[in-house]
């Protein structure tokens, strides 16, 4: 693959000189002709029956162009003695260079992603509606991606703009004389259709081909996307079953003579270990992983040869047998560009399919994007260019901390940063004329990072910049204050561990004064211990009405909390980001930095 965009554009011009008939045929079947990667060794089509295709993949990049801070910027490596080693990882300068190095010597190489490339992004990308990330993905030669739920954060029109290009309808163009070009790669939305027309929002599949090798890619997001995205973002769209959709388009591809197929699925699983090199095929194939992807993998047609997955931000390279009992790889490369997966697909020229035996599936391995090697110079320039535009906003100090305050990086049900955010939302809405809130709740998925004590730039250790605060709270959700009865509040707390959250509990972060016991030895609603839920030491009264603050996503029933949709007497306050930055400024200074909370509001029984 080329190390700069210029050779790629030249290759495209050559590809574009196909005859009109050939081009029309390619368009009819969704074929994307791909030029030979620069620096690769040519292969002779007739030199052997099989050829190895290198599939490089990643997922859940979330606009992390710069190396992520705190635990979000590390991976855990399992050592021979059973201990874990922490390795700093990520940053698009290193990811691009790693991919370019990996492609060398591979005449057949394709790069794919499994959604959430954008959305919930740090300020450097999010401030510019993720145009910098799409530009970076073009430069590192991404060939195809599925959509994820976060691709819908700003709605269908914005996702379409990401694909087709054009300046933002409100903010306009960010650089004089430059118009956003859009993604060079196709976004695949096989299971996302328009409610009125029934047609996929964007392309459902594409076909990568090179020197007689053809591989089809089908892209889907999780069926439950509407449950975890603001309603406005998915208005007018339907989200269909992942398995049924993949199986449908696998048949379409087969009828077109495309037998080798890879599914890009923005849904994932939970391996038994967080170490990136954990063997999730121990003791048997797929035994070390659980979650939605396991059932999906067991039911996706055998016509599909490999599954590239995401959404859970976990790392795994598993082998889960397909419905016919044949082994099939299921992979995920964590998140934020900290890893990439390398999968070998052995293509049979006679059958036009991937060779999969009953003994061994195509090999797959996750590689760490370490920060010890060289950086991709074009990515360094890209980051510097956008940082210059963002600097007046990003570098403004908004607070001071005395140590790391863990948010995304903790495995505990209650995160110290979750407490800070909940307290900030309560403080912003407590006054009678600001909503009159008595308590606040925060969904854990909305906490996108940690607050790291060590300086990321020149601001100094312990200084929290606006850019860092934005990385933690990037959605700019408005805080809602609603009336909930004690019964509704208790039901909402029970929904943390029941319904769609039964398998993977979503423990809400709570403001100071709200306490309860979470008993993980029990099951279902009983995990929220009756009588333990108290506000300022007084048990919640089922018949009493409470004023509860939460972001608009949660107030709309998002993340599997339908009880909160029934809230009455709604007040719309400041944004969650404004509340967060205002709280940091009010409660910290250089001489009196904010200490990490004890995170002792939820008593956990294991």
Automatic annotation (TrEMBL):
A GO BP entry: nucleotide catabolic process
SUPFAM superfamilies per the UniProt record, alphabetical: 5'-nucleotidase (syn. UDP-sugar hydrolase), C-terminal domain, Metallo-dependent phosphatases
Domain Calcineurin-like phosphoesterase: 58-314
Segments of this protein annotated with the region Disordered: 62-87
Superkingdom classification of source: Bacteria
Molecular-function GO terms, alphabetical: 5'-nucleotidase activity; nucleotide binding; UDP-sugar diphosphatase activity
Name of the featured protein: Bifunctional metallophosphatase/5'-nucleotidase
Organism: Streptomyces gilvosporeus
Lineage: Bacteria, Bacillati, Actinomycetota, Actinomycetes, Kitasatosporales
